[in-house]
Predict the structure.
Amino acid sequence: MILTEFSYRESSGWQLEKLTLHHQNLIVGMNSVGKSRTLEALGNVIRFIKNDSELAKKDFSCVLRLSNSHQIEYAFELSDGLIKSESLLIDGQSKIVRNASTAEMYGESVNPPANKLLIQARRDTMRYPEIEEIILWAEHTSLYVFSNITASLKSLSPYILSTEPLIPEMYEQIKNQQNVLIEYIKELGYQIDKIEVVENASGGKWLLIYETGIEKPMEFYELSNGMFRVFSVLLYMIYSSTLKGARCLMIDDMGEGLDYRRSTKLGKIVFSYCKAKSIQLIVTSNDSFLLDTVDLDLWNILQRTGSVVTSLNSQTHQELFAKFARTGLSNYDILSSNFITNHVNTHKG
């Protein structure tokens, strides 16, 4: 199950129009265009599907399209803690139709709580397997805000949206791939010989990091911020590949704070690994180092006019991307130059 399309609107007027997604995605754009806000919006939707009460007073609407062996279109509108509308289409067939006063689910009239989604109130894996797929997709999606990951005791759980184990327990659970993680870290220029799981006096798990040429190990929260960010993201990526069910990993601002070599290498590792392990990957960045390593076919270029955000990609704007490919310029130049503006103006003319 992967997310293939996402639209979102807030009561403030901020609106994301039909973002098309694939197995691997790089969302790019200049500052303040809405990259982080797009992942935040998707996070709001996922949290509400998972019944997060903190969102009860938010006002927003969304459309999700998910694809597996069938096509799912799910949409709902939330206003002042109440569900104003909800709909579910499976391969084009209507399964849920709901407004503020009536609701029908799989052909039956129902009376759900006004503040609960029908997919929450009527969860039944036998009768409504497609609903279970939506909820499992939400439960299997995690978000890392790369620039917010800092090495500290409070960062035992640096991811959000998911309820995965703390970092030491997560490392312990990837036994067959611990060497893979260490090798990736070495490829990024961090000289790590060994990572050891230990138990502290209160029974909690802890990690000790052994660096090349240094006899005394470091505790993992003593790592530099850059190394800790890399370690956290790679650890979760590998850990998620060991779990049952399709996974989705979202990384906001990936590569922030890293130098050229490490940013580009991290991008190559993450995109390659997630592709091989069938993990849906949604990354945002405007880091020129990273952008030049990711194929343009995986890009969504966000543009904002007022409060409305739209996207351009090689499927929706084939001529634009094909024309740019013939210029021989670097990937980043499609953002930093006037290429898009000139193309759009010429096309209008």
Remarks:
- The longest strand covers residues 2-10.
- Residues 3 and 66 are 5 Å apart (CA to CA).
- DSSP finds eleven helices and 17 strands in the chain.
